[in-house]
C-alpha cells in the first residue's frame, strides 16, 4: 500500500529547547528522501522502564532541523502555543466531544487489559489443574494395578471415565474472552485524533534554530550523501555513514574546527588512534573563509575542506 502524500512543510515541534517529530509518515519520508535519521526517544506506553527499543517521538539535532528549514522541507512550530491555539480554535461542543473520545478510548483499553489478565489467569489455573489431574491419575493407576490383575475381561461395568483435565478445559473455554496478546492497547497514535487545527502560516512558527559553528561541516557532508548522527558514544561531534545506518557501519568520526584554529597534536593522535581502533577514519573539517578585509574582518565561508587522519604507526 502507498502511504498518503506528505504535506510540506513538515511541522517540527519545538518543546523545551529540543526539536521533535511525532508523525511516523514524516519520519520515514525524511529518512528516505533527505537522509535525516534523528534519535528515537519515546518509550512504550505500558513499559515505561524499557530503554532498548525506543519509539516516537524522533528527536532531531539543531543542525538537522536547520537543514530541513533551509531546504523548505520543514518549519519550526512552538508546540506549546500551537496546542493552546488549537484548543481555543475548537468549538465548545467539539472540545467536549474530543474529551469524551479520549475517555472512551481509555475505558476501552482498560477493559481489554482486564480481559487479557483474566484470560491469562484462567489459562494458568487450567495448566495447574491439568498437572494435578495427571499426577492423580498416575497415582491411581499405580494403586489399581494389583486389583486389575484379578479382574475379569468380561466385566459389564464401563471402564471409561472422563478426564478431569478435559473437564476443567471445557469449563474454562466457556468463560474465555478473546483478547489476543499484543492487541490489548492497539496502536498508539502518534498524533492527537482528531488532530488539532494547524497552519504553517500561523504565529506559532519560529525562525530557523540556532546551530553550532560545526554546521557548515554538517551541511557539507550531508550534501555529499552521508547520513549523520550524534557522535557522543565515540567522543566526537558526528558519525558519518555512507548509507542508511541500518545497512552500514559509520566510516568517519567527525570533528569540526575553525579555519584558523590551532589544533593540539595530542588531540590529533588520540582521534586518529581511536578512529583506527574502531575501524573508522578520524575526519576534521571546517569552513574556509575568504580573506579578511582592510578592517580585519573575515568574509563569508567559501567552501568546506575536510581531512581524514588514520593511525599507521605501531
From TrEMBL:
<dbReference type="InterPro" id="IPR036167">
    <property type="entry name" value="tRNA_intron_Endo_cat-like_sf"/>
</dbReference>
<feature type="domain" description="tRNA intron endonuclease catalytic">
    <location>
        <begin position="215"/>
        <end position="285"/>
    </location>
</feature>
<dbReference type="GO" id="GO:0000213">
    <property type="term" value="F:tRNA-intron lyase activity"/>
</dbReference>
<dbReference type="InterPro" id="IPR016690">
    <property type="entry name" value="TSEN34"/>
</dbReference>
<dbReference type="Pfam" id="PF01974">
    <property type="entry name" value="tRNA_int_endo"/>
</dbReference>
<comment type="function">
    <text>Constitutes one of the two catalytic subunit of the tRNA-splicing endonuclease complex, a complex responsible for identification and cleavage of the splice sites in pre-tRNA. It cleaves pre-tRNA at the 5'- and 3'-splice sites to release the intron. The products are an intron and two tRNA half-molecules bearing 2',3'-cyclic phosphate and 5'-OH termini. There are no conserved sequences at the splice sites, but the intron is invariably located at the same site in the gene, placing the splice sites an invariant distance from the constant structural features of the tRNA body.</text>
</comment>
<dbReference type="InterPro" id="IPR006677">
    <property type="entry name" value="tRNA_intron_Endonuc_cat-like"/>
</dbReference>
<feature type="active site">
    <location>
        <position position="241"/>
    </location>
</feature>
<comment type="similarity">
    <text>Belongs to the tRNA-intron endonuclease family.</text>
</comment>
<feature type="compositionally biased region" description="Low complexity">
    <location>
        <begin position="139"/>
        <end position="154"/>
    </location>
</feature>
<keyword id="KW-0819">tRNA processing</keyword>
<feature type="active site">
    <location>
        <position position="280"/>
    </location>
</feature>
<dbReference type="GO" id="GO:0003676">
    <property type="term" value="F:nucleic acid binding"/>
</dbReference>
<feature type="compositionally biased region" description="Polar residues">
    <location>
        <begin position="162"/>
        <end position="176"/>
    </location>
</feature>
<feature type="active site">
    <location>
        <position position="249"/>
    </location>
</feature>
<keyword id="KW-0456">Lyase</keyword>
<dbReference type="Pfam" id="PF26577">
    <property type="entry name" value="TSEN34_N"/>
</dbReference>
<keyword id="KW-0378">Hydrolase</keyword>
<feature type="domain" description="TSEN34 N-terminal">
    <location>
        <begin position="10"/>
        <end position="79"/>
    </location>
</feature>
<feature type="region of interest" description="Disordered">
    <location>
        <begin position="139"/>
        <end position="207"/>
    </location>
</feature>
<dbReference type="GO" id="GO:0000379">
    <property type="term" value="P:tRNA-type intron splice site recognition and cleavage"/>
</dbReference>
<dbReference type="InterPro" id="IPR006676">
    <property type="entry name" value="tRNA_splic"/>
</dbReference>
<keyword id="KW-0255">Endonuclease</keyword>
<protein>
    <recommendedName>
        <fullName>tRNA-splicing endonuclease subunit Sen34</fullName>
        <ecNumber>4.6.1.16</ecNumber>
    </recommendedName>
</protein>
<dbReference type="GO" id="GO:0000214">
    <property type="term" value="C:tRNA-intron endonuclease complex"/>
</dbReference>
<dbReference type="InterPro" id="IPR011856">
    <property type="entry name" value="tRNA_endonuc-like_dom_sf"/>
</dbReference>
<dbReference type="InterPro" id="IPR059049">
    <property type="entry name" value="TSEN34_N"/>
</dbReference>
<keyword id="KW-0540">Nuclease</keyword>
Amino acid at each position: 500500500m502507498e502511504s498518503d502524500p506528505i504535506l510540506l512543510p513538515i511541522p517540527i515541534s519545538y518543546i523545551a529547547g529540543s526539536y521533535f517529530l511525532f508523525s511516523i509518515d514524516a519520519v520515514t519520508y525524511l529518512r528516505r528522501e533527505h537522509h535525516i535519521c534523528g534519535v528515537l526517544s519515546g518509550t512504550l506506553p505500558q513499559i515505561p522502564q524499557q530503554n532498548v527499543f525506543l519509539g516516537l517521538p524522533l528527536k532531531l539535532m539543531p543542525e538537522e532541523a536547520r537543514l530541513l528549514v533551509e531546504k523548505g522541507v520543514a518549519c519550526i512550530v512552538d508546540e506549546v502555543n500551537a496546542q493552546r491555539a488549537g484548543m481555543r480554535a475548537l468549538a465548545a461542543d467539539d472540545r467536549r466531544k474530543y474529551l469524551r473520545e479520549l475517555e472512551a478510548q481509555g475505558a476501552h483499553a482498560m477493559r481489554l487489559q482486564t480481559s487479557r489478565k483474566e484470560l491469562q489467569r484462567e489459562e494458568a489455573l487450567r495448566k495447574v489443574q491439568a498437572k494435578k489431574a495427571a499426577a492423580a491419575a498416575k497415582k491411581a493407576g499405580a494403586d489399581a494395578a494389583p486389583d486389575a490383575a484379578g479382574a475379569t475381561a468380561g466385566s459389564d461395568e464401563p471402564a471409561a471415565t472422563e478426564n478431569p483435565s478435559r473437564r476443567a478445559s471445557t469449563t474454562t473455554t466457556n468463560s474465555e474472552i478473546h483478547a489476543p496478546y499484543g492487541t490489548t492497547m492497539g496502536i498508539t497514535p502518534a498524533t492527537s485524533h482528531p488532530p488539532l487545527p494547524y497552519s504553517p502560516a500561523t504565529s506559532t512558527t519560529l525562525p530557523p534554530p540556532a546551530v553550532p559553528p560545526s554546521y557548515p561541516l554538517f551541511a557539507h557532508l550531508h550534501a555529499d550523501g552521508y547520513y549523520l548522527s550524534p557522535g557522543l558514544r565515540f567522543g566526537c561531534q558526528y558519525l558519518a555513514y555512507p548509507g542508511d545506518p541500518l545497512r552500514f557501519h559509520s566510516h568517519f568520526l567527525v570533528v569540526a574546527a575553525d579555519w584558523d584554529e590551532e589544533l593540539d597534536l595530542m588531540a590529533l593522535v588520540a582521534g586518529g588512534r581511536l578512529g583506527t581502533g574502531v575501524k573508522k577514519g578520524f575526519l576534521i573539517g571546517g569552513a574556509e573563509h575568504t580573506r579578511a578585509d582592510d578592517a580585519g574582518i573575515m568574509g563569508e565561508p567559501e567552501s568546506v575542506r575536510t581531512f581524514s587522519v588514520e593511525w599507521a604507526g605501531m
